Each structure stands twice: as structure tokens, then as C-alpha cells.
Amino acid sequence: MYKRLQKIYSDFPSKFWVVVGTSFIDRIGGTLLFPFFSLYITEKFGVGMTQAGIVLGSFSAFGLVGSIIGGALTDKFGRKPLVLFGLVFSAVSTLSLGLVNEFAVLIPLSVAIGLLSNIAGPARQAMIADLLPEEKRQEGFGILRVVGNMAWIIGPTIGGFIASRSYFTLFVMDALISCVVAVIFFLYITETRPETTEESDSILRTFAGYSAVLRDYAYVGFLVASMLMGLVYQQLYNSLSVYLRDNHGIDPRGYGFLLTASAITVILFQFQTTRIIKKYPAFLMMALGVFFYMVGFGLFGFVTVFWLFAVAVVIITIGEMVIMPTSSALAANFAPEDMRGRYMAVFGLSWALPATIGPSAAGLILDNYNPNLLWYVGAIICAVSIFSFIILHLRLGKNPRFNPPEPEQETLPAS
Predict the structure, then answer these.
(1) How far is the C-alpha of 199 from the C-alpha of 179, rounded, in Å?
(2) Helices and strands of the chain, counted as H and E runs
(3) In this structure, CATH architecture of domain 12-193+213-405
(4) Which of 64, 76, 163, 382 could be 352's S-S partner, Cβ–Cβ 3.0 to 4.6 Å?
(5) pTM of the predicted protein model
(6) Reduced to 3 states, what is the DSSP secondary structure of residue 151?
């Protein structure tokens, strides 16, 4: 076991492992708070999920704008300055959210925070793509998934316990962790932007480069299919906690346990899963992952006992283990080297737009109709996404950028 872990470590550059370590610490802070934010809004301000969805949607909508700005700034000025800005601003904004006492103030504050805190997102993604060669990216993103879910074991378990006593403590802990990560990042991470990046372009020309991204129609098709999938996936973290509390009497600790079960599944099986799926066509693997989403989210609408909700979450997690490393690697492989930040920023659309629309749409269903309808509609949307990824495979599957490695390359070392 030790030799195997040592080999995995030696397969990746040391800078990659520093990024992995800081990501792990940062994710602990985020997972303390994020899964319980919908509960915090509905309980503290006495509003329904529709109003909570407006707040969450404001974060995401203006986060999308921030991500687009950040993508251009990442290609122009580098990765490290943007990541540091994001960490410091995250600490300040998290504390400000915990101090707000009026719901009317929460919405404009969420607009400002969403805009500025998401500027660093494309820089993080581009940094991983910079550090790893194309053939290692899928495994690299898979490793990030593993350590991220190790944080999910710690975060929701502690967060659920603290949330039942003091939500504000969650905000303080998240802010402190962001500060610690910023210090580590400043001291130990060096700039990773390739030397070939367009140094001479003005900032306006750099922003204008987004038109080239949007003319990559294959990439846009990939984004649309991913957005459909993301619209459903968002409900695991935005709406499920409220649905379980209001319709099945499951408190934050029970919801935290479900997320912890998901995280344990990823830790145990993500790396092996990534090594298996990288041998197969990427777009077909995306379709397979969304199929697991369809089954898992659809199951929420039919079950009533806690252990079956846990089964549904594990099924969804299997889909995650296929989708997350594959989608990130696909987005990076679409991108020319000198436009990596902008491509990764636009890739953020596949999560930002669903995060903008999803909470409010889910709130309308949960507050006004049969709550189970949310999961039935989600299953139908997943079916459309599956079909879209199959079409992408038929049109792009033979492109060398999206082909799996030759079988000989994978089997020869073991013989």
C-alpha cells in the first residue's frame, strides 16, 4: 500500500501536491458552511426556499460575471495573484454574511460577494491544467476530488453539529481557514502561467478573446449538455437539505451524514474509478455519469426512509466520480494554451448558470407544488443531458484530444 501511494505521489509534480494540500484545507472551511447555508437563510430570516433561492441565485449570477472577468485577468496577469485575491476576499465576505441581520441587506451583499469572490475560480482550474500534461489531467482532477471529499467528511460532520448550536461560528471558522490558506499559498506556490501566454495583448484584447471561445461551437455544445446536468446536481446542495427537513423530518445532522457518506465513497473509490474510465471515450463516460444522476435524483421522489436516501446519495456519488474529473479534463483539453483561463472561465458557466437558476426554480416547486415533482423533473432533465453527450461522442469522439490513451500504453507496465 505504501509503495502504491509513493508511486502515485511520484507520478505528479511537487507543485501539484502543494495545490492539492491547500485545496484540502480550503475545502474544509467551505464544507463547514456551504451545505447549511440554505437552512441558515430560511431559519434566521424566516423566509421560504423561494426567497433563499433568490439569494443563492444572486451569488451565482454575479459569480458568473466575476468568473468571466477572472478568466481574462488570469490569462493576462497570471494565476497566483487572482487566487490570493479570492482567498482574502472570501474571508472578509464570509464574516460579513454572518453579521447581516436584515434580509433586505443580504441580497445586495450577495451580489457584491458573488462578483468578487468568483474571480479566482478560473485561475485555480488553469493552474492545475498548467501543471499537468494532457494525459495526466483526468487523474489529477480525480485526486483533487479525493482530497476535496476528505474535506467533506470533516466539514459537514462538524458543521452539522455546530449549525444546531451557532450558525455564526461556521462563518468565523470558514473565514479563518481562508486566511490560513492564503498565507500558505503566498509562501509556497509560484506562478504557473506558461511563458507562451499573450504578454503583449492589452487587457481589452484579452477580454475580446472570449468571442473566440464562443465560436468554438463544439465547446459550446459541451457546455450546454453540462449545464443541464448541473441544473439537477445543484439540488443536492441547495434544496435537498430543506426538502428533507420539511417533508421527512431529517435535521441538519442527518443531512450532514448523507454528505459524509458521499465523501467516504469518493475517498475509497475515486482514484480507481478515474483510472478505469480514462480508458474509455470521455463523452460516453459523461453520459454514463449523468445516468447515475438520473437514477439517484429520481429516487428522491419515491423513497421515504433515511437509509434509502443514503442509497440514492451513493448512486449520485458514483455519477460524480465519473463526471467530475472527466468534465474538467475535457474543458482543459478543448482550450488552447494561451486561452486556458478564458476557456476554464466559460466552463464555469456549466455550474454558475444552473446555480443561478436552480435554487429559485426549485424553491417555486417546493413552496407551491408537490415537492416530489422537483426530483421527477430533474430525472427528465438528466435524460436530455445523456442524449446530448451521446451526440457529442458521435460528432467528436474520433478527435485525438478526446480519445482515450492506447491500450498498450496502459497495460505494458504491468506485464
Answers:
(1) 31
(2) 21, 0
(3) Up-down Bundle (1.20)
(4) 64
(5) 0.71
(6) helix
